[in-house]
Amino acid sequence: MSRPFRRAPRTLIAFATLILAASSITACAAPQSAADNASAESSSDAYPVTVEHVYGETTIDEKPQRIVALGWYSLDVVAALGEVPVAVEDFSWGNVDTYLPWFADKVDELGGELPEIIQFTDAGEYDFEQILALAPDVILANHSGISETVYKRLTEIAPTVAFAESTWASDREQLTLTIGAVLDKEQEAQQLLDDADAAIASAAEAHPEFQGIVFTYGWFLGEGETSLGLYLPRDPRVPLLEQLGFTSSPDVAALEDTTKEFYANVSLEELGDIESQFHVGWVNTPADVDHTLSDPLISRWAPVAADSYYFFEDQRLAWATTAPSVLSIPSTIDDLADALASAVPAAN
């Protein structure tokens, strides 16, 4: 199974062919403040809460007790805020079994039961009957790939919060504060953000060698593929590495407005035009690394030719960069930084 870049039919994102073009944009999608995204109308209990997202507005009239978390990321924030969702998606991939380890640990700490796993139909759709049977008070899909059609079906079951702007892309501050508002725990959410930022800053301080290294983050080259996928600045993986001190490749940033997706495919013939001193990727197996590096065009790309690359073969750490949450960061950031540091010297 290829995760976290999903290719299986059950997934809600399609592997589209993207166009390599040169247009300029400087950074990731601009974060919005919680006030932009969620407004509490006020009683002392903060409800009703109205949340803006890509498909409109969703109002939650009372504090939700039964929470379904679709996609990635939201489940971590819910648990970090002291609540246990009634259902989440299956995160099985490589050495990760069903639940993200930091999420399972937090549920155990809260004295809760691990939530039910959302099933998918053979057509790759959510099992809406299962979600209906869970009787959720709210469905959080803040970091997901749900279409407007799926969103409308979910709203027939419960108030549903979709992603803010782009599929599978979100800003950590915005997402965390939005969920904090939904749960009437904004102050706690802000504290979690502060703690996560402090953990990243500490890891960055421990690794000054990261400073200023131009990086790219993508995945492996699959059989028969003639392009390499690279994550755009709107993807949470990129700002996480920037916080550690790395500098995002300006050539990848220039692709940001060529697509609504969170990644761009760069043809192997044009890969040499992408500036990078250090390439990061993830793989399903070590064989994926060998296959990728054996491609003649990739082997001549600057970071690979300089032996300056790192592929996450530990899927736990790959997940930790994929949806770096206020729950995953404190438990993994030192391991992540150490893993990257093991390969960075070649970049200097």
User: What proportion of the residues form beta strands (DSSP E)?
Assistant: 5-15%
Return the structural class: alpha/beta
C-alpha Rg (nearest Å): 20 Å
Q: How many individual helices?
A: 14
Work out the number of β strands: 14
The secondary-structure element order is: HEEEEHEHEHEHEHHEEHEHEEHHHEHH
Shape estimate: globular
Largest sheet: 4 strands, parallel
| Beginning-to-end CA distance, first to last residue | 34 Å
Can you tell me the residue ranges where pLDDT is under 50 for at least 5 consecutive residues?
5-44
Portion in helices: 25-40%
What order do the strands of the largest sheet run in, or round the barrel if closed?
A: 11-9-13-14
What is the overall pLDDT average?
A: 88
Q: Any overview of this molecule?
A:
This protein is an alpha/beta fold and 348 residues long. Helix content is 34%, strand content 15%. The strands form 5 sheets. Strands 11-9-13-14 form a 4-stranded parallel β-sheet. The protein has a 3-stranded antiparallel β-sheet with strand order 1-2-3. A 3-stranded parallel β-sheet has the order 4-7-8. α3 links the parallel β5 and β6. The model is unreliable at 5-44 (pLDDT under 50).
Q: Quick summary of this structure?
A:
With 348 residues, the protein is an alpha/beta fold. The chain has helices spanning 34-37, 74-80, 101-110, 128-133, 148-155, 172-182, 186-206, 237-243, 250-253, 286-294, 296-300, 302-305, 315-322, 328-341; strands at 38-40, 49-53, 56-60, 67-69, 87-88, 116-117, 138-140, 160-161, 214-219, 227-231, 247-248, 263-267, 278-282, 309-312. The two termini are 34 Å apart.
